[in-house]
């Protein structure tokens, strides 16, 4: 298999990680409370955020096609709703990225670090 | 004219110099492909932006907006939002599990020989179709810089290759670019991407600033002017949706065809990015998952700002020049030279020429045209480099080393041999894309081409394989091969029988849509699922489920991820 070749060549790789074909080890890590909490925390953010951005994004072509006269409504001068909605997509994308990175730094990274420490200690 | 060409050459020589300097530092395979895993988050963010913003963004979107108004802006929106898919689902797991290529991640849990072979097919297909558009962009630029080149070289290009007559500009510039790329490596391209991303932002900011200055920084006056530009066929103002794909004309499957095209396009734009091999490779050059995340943030900032500026660049060209006058050669008063067809890929260079002349006189126009053309050329060169490396590494590292030499003809592969195979692959992919570019023609819009072929293959073939490998326990080799090969074949087939982008369009195509994503992407995902169940029934790949535990832990936490710097 490929595992052997992709292992770190850094000093002190934990021997449990280095052992080839040690499936029990990975399953063991998967069952730890830290790992389960990490996965839960990640999906609790990523799942709703993904659903939201997909819905918000496809709302743009759908409303352009289904309600063309509404979307051509001019808001300021000749700047219409369709353009402002498109522009809002940039703001929403940046905000979601900001919230994800904040969450990852505050919550996911410390949990992942705990799992890595446990992997280093052995079970 | 020849200030323009001289300045253009200076920029090209500088980039070539950087490559030559970097090539001397490219010693090991790890350096060649993953830049020694020593790139920091912000550097990688700039490089992602550089890799991502190709001729399609710099020349193509401005052209789509200049020719079709608002609908062109949809490309800008989709190509930024796409990075949320990358950030939420792909970037960190890829960094935690990958080594050089996408197939390294897949073959963690799947059977390496079939998966690497299938991934090599889809990667080469994405890279070649993406590169085809870059060749068209570069060829178009040369037609502006040296308008007589095509005419003078015509006698030497009178023969046809497989029934297609090669375009002199595209062939010449394409061959030069391939030589440049094959001489350098990923170290070169990372730094060239960074330099190029900065140049590209500078060019876009400068032109946007001049457009705004033209309208005395009055956004409302700018939009008044855009509103006064009307589409001939639909009578709609350019600020309004529905010009590129007019609403309420024809239906497909009982739904307004324009709506279907736009949704289909959107699917390709936001799902394709996460399956682009040359973008995924970028995550293997950073030190850890946190740096992968930071680099996406930087990339999103830069890419988003650039795409917002396409408002000024595209609408500016529509309002100030008009689509009928955007061609390779213009006469006094910025009218299209007689006998030339408008070329949508030239909106940016023509806008630069117009604004330079308006503000600084004729010499200013020549200077600004040279600058923007050189930036566009550097853009294309950098993207072609990234694409070539993705294709070359898929073939050389995945197929040649890990399939042919490891499993079929056992033996030790020297680094030299591996790099040489990569170079030969690069040359072949380059030739294929030059031929495809000549077949498509220089006036096809490069953004529409990239979104219509490369992004759909990426979303229908690569994305299901990557997502399911990382997150679906039951996924197996059969599913991966089904989506990688099936998604590629279905996309190419639908595009081939569809209306396509070459003008004049086919009258009654076998497949009604230009954007095939709405069919191809669900088919790719369905093939992955069906393949998995068939593999399950055949009990062919029991290891995949067992190994899921490993990839699950690795992807989420980075346990055992290759750290920086390592020597292989």
Topology summary:
The complex is a heterodimer of chains A (123) and B (568).
Chain A: H1 3-6, H2 15-18, H3 23-30, H4 33-66, H5 68-71, E1 74-76, E2 79-80, H6 81-121
Antiparallel strand pairs in A: 1-2
Helix pairs in contact in A: 4-6
Chain B: H1 2-23, H2 29-34, H3 41-52, H4 55-68, H5 70-97, H6 102-109, H7 112-145, H8 149-153, E1 160-161, E2 164-165, H9 168-183, H10 186-214, H11 219-228, E3 251-252, E4 255-256, H12 257-272, H13 277-280, H14 289-320, E5 330-331, E6 335-336, H15 347-408, H16 415-440, H17 446-471, H18 477-497, H19 517-537, H20 543-557
Antiparallel strand pairs in B: 1-2, 3-4, 5-6
Helix pairs in contact in B: 1-10, 1-15, 3-10, 3-14, 4-5, 4-7, 4-14, 4-15, 4-17, 5-12, 5-14, 5-17, 5-20, 6-7, 6-17, 7-9, 7-15, 7-16, 7-17, 7-18, 9-15, 9-16, 10-14, 10-15, 11-14, 12-17, 12-19, 14-15, 15-16, 17-18, 17-19, 18-19
Description:
The complex is a heterodimer of chains A (123) and B (568). Chain A has six helices and two strands; from the N terminus they run H-H-H-H-H-E-E-H. The longest helix of chain A has 41 residues, at 81-121. Chain A has one domain (24-121). In chain A, strands 1-2 form a two-stranded antiparallel sheet. Mean pLDDT of chain A is 78; it is low at 1-24. The relative contact order of chain A is 0.13. Chain A is elongated and about 65 Å long. Chain A is mostly helical and 123 residues long. By secondary structure, chain B is an all-alpha fold. Chain B has a single domain (2-437), classed as Sodium/glucose cotransporter (Up-down Bundle), CATH 1.20.1730. Helices cover 72% and strands 2% of the residues of chain B. Chain B has 20 helices and six strands. Chain B has helices spanning 2-23, 29-34, 41-52, 55-68, 70-97, 102-109, 112-145, 149-153, 168-183, 186-214, 219-228, 257-272, 277-280, 289-320, 347-408, 415-440, 446-471, 477-497, 517-537, 543-557; strands at residues 160-161, 164-165, 251-252, 255-256, 330-331, 335-336. Chain B has a two-stranded antiparallel sheet with strand order 1-2. Chain B has a two-stranded antiparallel sheet with strand order 3-4. In chain B, helix 1 (2-23) packs antiparallel against helix 10, helix 3 (41-52) runs parallel beside helix 14 (289-320) and helix 14 runs antiparallel to helix 15. The longest helix of chain B has 62 residues, at 347-408. Chain B is globular, with a radius of gyration of 23 Å. Chains A and B meet through helix 1, helix 3, helix 4, strand 2 and helix 6 of A and helix 5, helix 6, helix 11, helix 12 and helix 14 of B.
